[in-house]
């Protein structure tokens, strides 16, 4: 009897576990899903004028929609191409389910169902790059779109277009902003890199106005919604000034006067007018040289006096709730901010807004659910295998780009970062170290020449105080004390360019180094290098190696990417074969399945590819991948059915192989069934 109970209970437990596996396999399996970090650069914001709790955000990952005033966001980009960088949004006031989205070089798109689906207008508007769009408030089928230095007009909702740029010279370089008179929509204003232009006949003819008072580079135009003869312009001249200024006209642009926002040498980037109380204006101004912090200013007297209320991240525009104008939204380089008290205080509203740019992922071998991600917004940490992320408010300088982020395998609180960062008035290539998990960072420059390229940084997995740094034509540098002192390690390189490094994880004294012209190997921890380029696939201008990877299970298997594409060596670099059947684009990272060495993943500019035959053939795995510019890959060592990818604009995404999940369960993988037989005695 006891044996039967045990058997029944065991079967029940196995069935429950199998259902759990099936549920996990069904949720997000076989296509990519977002895992954050949430936030990132938001290029455009639009508010539904009839239901202001509905917002739209244009990002590098397409369009997101919120129906709860920004508390949560979900993708709303069906029909948009991958990598659609949406920088301008326009809503038809009378029909707020109709929207237009400008995606730069990818063209103009239209939605008639509240952003559920989008169709391209590129066939009708065949231009190289689309910028701002404005809609006639009285005749919504009439709209105008700027494309570089030209303006186009449609009178049928975007079905057909005609150029209407007469009077605007082609050397204005760029039309940055468009504004339409809300009371007399035949009057329009175009802010360019060569002054402000006005049309009073619906775009038929344009004339330069505001000379000599207005600046040359126009950044924003705002029109009083109740008295359109009053308008405001911001911008800058070719020469530096000691003040950030706003220019005001009360006669439709005939004459102008300057108002000082702040006595700092900077430029007002954005302007916004309270739709109910137009004497209240808002402006944002960069307040440091690196332009990483913006001041948020408010005027309550039509721009005569300004008060600084908040300092926050870089801002592209301000959107004001038309029904509750004390509620504002700011699209920034870090996501969306919301204020409910007329810009006094701001809170982030980014849940679900997966738009962060990730340059590198770094895993912690001893702590297999700990993962770091780094990019221009800084460093993020996950403690649950990439399912959620926390931003580390480190004291490092503003980051422009992260070349490599590596973690000490014996101490996950010690991180090293090869990065390009801003120091006061210049961008420098540097190596930084943190010993407290990314909160505080120190500069590791002892022994390194000033501002040399930081092309590749790798760590010895067995002796993590040892790191190697590739610096282009300056060779390789090595540290044996965690970066306190760097010394040249270039014997045998003979001045060759080095851009990529790889360490044998089993025998770290074996390293590989590649660059423009050569491939090198060291078997004595970098003391000397031997040229092993002879076996590489031939190329007319040198191998141009940009990536090297060593198979952890079979370290004589090495992968390289260069001018020859992707190649593999099975004998430690002596001979090579190309593996480009099915691959396309530039490959930035390669991950080898920790259980199946013949299963490979390659990520790069065209997305993620998979090979199940050791690289002989590849298939594209881009289902669900909104941003296909992939910078880095990671496979969980205990759950190889899940692959993580860092993207440049779409955060970190993951993909589960449902068949592998089922196989993992049958092997007794992630879901283990344990029965204490004593419970049935």
Provide an overview of this structure.
With 681 residues, the chain is mostly beta strands. The protein is 5% helix and 39% strand. The protein has two helices and 58 strands. Strands 1-58-57-56 form a four-stranded antiparallel β-sheet. A four-stranded antiparallel β-sheet has the order 3-4-5-6, with no helix packed on it. Strands 7-8-9-10 form a four-stranded antiparallel β-sheet, with no helix packed on it. A hairpin with a 7-residue loop joins strand 32 (360-363) and strand 33 (371-375). The model is unreliable at 1-28 and 665-681 (pLDDT under 50).
Low-confidence stretches: 1-28, 665-681
Structural class: mainly beta
Return Rg in Å. 28 Å
- Summed up, the helix count is 2
Mean residue pLDDT: 89
Q: How much of the sequence is in beta strands?
A: 35-45%
For the largest sheet, list the strands in their spatial order: 1-58-57-56
User: How many strands appear in the DSSP assignment?
Assistant: 58
- What best-fitting shape do the alpha-carbon axes yield? elongated
Biggest β-sheet, characterized?
4 strands, antiparallel
Measured as a percent range, the helix fraction is under 10%
Gap from first CA to last CA: 10 Å
Describe the structure concisely.
The chain is 5% helix and 39% strand.
């Amino acid at each position: 009897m006891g044996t039967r109970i045990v058997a029944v209970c065991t079967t029940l437990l196995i069935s429950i576990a199998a259902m759990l596996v099936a549920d996990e396999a069904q949720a997000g399996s076989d296509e990519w899903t977002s895992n954050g970090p949430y936030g990132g650069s938001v290029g455009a914001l639009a508010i539904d004028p009839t239901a202001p709790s509905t917002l739209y955000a244009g990002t590098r990952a397409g369009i997101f929609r919120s129906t709860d005033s920004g508390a949560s966001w979900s993708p709303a980009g069906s029909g948009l191409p991958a990598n659609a960088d949406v920088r301008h949004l326009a809503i038809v006031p009378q029909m707020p389910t109709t929207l237009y989205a400008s995606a730069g070089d990818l063209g103009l798109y239209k939605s008639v169902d509240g952003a559920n689906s989008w169709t391209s207008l590129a066939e009708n508007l065949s231009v190289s790059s689309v910028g701002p769009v404005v809609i006639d408030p009285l005749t919504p089928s009439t709209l105008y779109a700027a494309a570089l230095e030209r303006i186009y007009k449609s009178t049928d909702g975007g079905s057909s277009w005609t150029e209407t740029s007469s009077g605007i010279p082609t050397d204005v370089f760029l039309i940055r902003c468009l504004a339409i008179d809300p009371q007399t929509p035949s009057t329009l204003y175009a802010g360019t890199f060569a002054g402000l232009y006005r049309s009073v006949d619906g775009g038929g003819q344009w004339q330069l106005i505001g000379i000599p008072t207005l600046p040359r580079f126009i950044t924003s135009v705002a029109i009083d919604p109740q008295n359109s003869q009053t308008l405001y312009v911001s911008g800058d001249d070719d020469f530096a000034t000691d003040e950030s200024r706003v220019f005001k006209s009360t006669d439709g642009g005939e004459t102008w006067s300057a108002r000082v926002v702040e006595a700092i040498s900077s430029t007002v980037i954005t302007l916004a007018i309270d739709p109910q109380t137009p004497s209240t204006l808002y402006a944002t101004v960069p307040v440091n040289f690196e332009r990483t912090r913006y001041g948020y200013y408010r005027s309550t007297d039509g721009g005569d006096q300004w008060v600084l209320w908040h300092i926050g991240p870089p801002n592209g525009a301000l959107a004001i709730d038309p029904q509750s104008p004390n509620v504002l939204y700011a699209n920034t380089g870090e996501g969306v901010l919301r204020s409910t008290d007329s810009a006094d205080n701001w809170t982030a509203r980014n849940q679900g807004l997966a738009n962060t740019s990730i340059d590198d992922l770094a895993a912690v071998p001893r702590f297999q659910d700990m993962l770091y991600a780094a990019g221009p917004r800084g460093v993020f940490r996950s403690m649950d295998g990439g399912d959620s992320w926390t931003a580390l408010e480190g004291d490092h300088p503003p980051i422009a780009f992260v070349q490599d982020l590596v973690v000490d395998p014996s101490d996950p609180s010690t991180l090293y970062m090869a990065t390009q960062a801003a120091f006061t008035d210049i961008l420098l290539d540097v190596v930084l170290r943190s010993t407290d998990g990314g909160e505080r960072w120190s500069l590791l420059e002892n022994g390194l020449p000033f501002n040399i390229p930081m092309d590749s940084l790798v760590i010895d997995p067995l002796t993590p105080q040892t790191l190697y740094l590739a610096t282009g034509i300056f060779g390789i540098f090595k540290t044996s004390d965690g970066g306190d002192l760097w010394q040249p390690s270039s014997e045998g390189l003979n001045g060759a360019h080095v851009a990529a490094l790889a360490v044998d994880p089993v025998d770290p004294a074996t390293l590989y180094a590649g660059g423009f012209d050569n491939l090198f190997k060291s078997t004595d921890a970098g003391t000397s290098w031997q040229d092993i380029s002879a076996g590489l696939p031939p190329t007319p201008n040198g191998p141009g190696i940009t990536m090297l990877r060593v198979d952890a299970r079979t370290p004589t298997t090495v992968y390289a990417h260069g001018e020859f594409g992707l190649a593999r060596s099975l004998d430690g670099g002596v001979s090579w074969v190309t593996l480009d059947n099915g691959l396309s684009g530039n490959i930035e990272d390669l991950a080898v399945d920790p259980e199946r060495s013949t299963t490979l993943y390659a990520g790069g500019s065209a997305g993620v590819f998979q090979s199940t035959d050791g690289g002989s053939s590849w298939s594209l795995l881009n289902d669900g991948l909104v941003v296909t510019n992939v910078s880095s890959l990671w496979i969980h060592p205990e759950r190889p059915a899940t692959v993580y990818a860092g993207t440049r604009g779409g955060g970190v995404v993951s993909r589960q192989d449902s068949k592998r999940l089922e196989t993992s369960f049958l092997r007794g993988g992630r879901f283990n069934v344990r029965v204490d037989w004593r419970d049935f005695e």
